[in-house]
Amino acid sequence: MTARRPAARWLFPLVPPMALLAAACGPVSVAGSANPATTAPATSATSATSAASVPAPASTEEPASGARTPDAAVERWVTQILREQYKEACLSSAPALPAGQDAEALCAKPRAAASARSLHDAWAKPGVKLPPEGKVEVATVTANGDKVTVPDTAVKLDGRTLRSLELIGATGDTGSFSLSLKVEKHAGSWYVTGFDLKA
């Protein structure tokens, strides 16, 4: 008997448009992983940042502004996706794009929005409160260099990990499934630059 791969409705429309989102928001891999991050118990990036007396990045800030910490960058980016601010989420990675790439044009393409919408659908499940009522919490990320990978198990929405939300409705063997967010430091600030999908 052959084990079946997880089949979740949101996963199928996500994979083809990922190449465009990668061009707009950074690299995307379907297997493998960048430098794994070391994470501590989940805390709100907002409360962790405010505890250090530093204003937390809010989704209403200038879209291309970076975050002071990797977990704050993830909190803001996931919140933007959940609030259906797809273009803003895409543009928030603009400073980390290679020179010569037109972030505005790439982020305005329908396929970039389709990829972001697929992530939204993976996380926005019935009975789960979305921001601003539901809080996005990210485990404290310890960076070992200028690149880290934040696993979906380190990010919570309304008290549930993104992984648990992604797997709602999945069938078959889901043991190897994971989604990790790639975060990079550029000019002193942190940006979500892509994601790594293992199915």
Give an overview in words:
A four-stranded antiparallel β-sheet has the order 1-2-4-5. It contains eight helices and seven strands. The protein is of the alpha+beta class and 199 residues long. The relative contact order is 0.26. The protein has helices at 11-14, 18-25, 45-51, 70-82, 86-91, 103-107, 110-123, 162-166; strands at 38-43, 136-142, 147-151, 155-157, 160-161, 178-186, 189-198. The radius of gyration is 16 Å and the shape is globular. Helix 2 crosses helix 7 (110-123).
Architecture blueprint of SSEs:
Elements: H1 11-14, H2 18-25, E1 38-43, H3 45-51, H4 70-82, H5 86-91, H6 103-107, H7 110-123, E2 136-142, E3 147-151, E4 155-157, E5 160-161, H8 162-166, E6 178-186, E7 189-198
Antiparallel strand pairs: 1-2, 2-4, 3-6, 4-5, 6-7
Helix pairs in contact: 2-7
Gist of the model:
By secondary structure, the chain is an alpha+beta fold. It is built from 8 helices and 7 strands, in the order H-H-E-H-H-H-H-H-E-E-E-E-H-E-E.
Main features:
4-stranded antiparallel β-sheet, 199 residues, alpha+beta, 7 strands
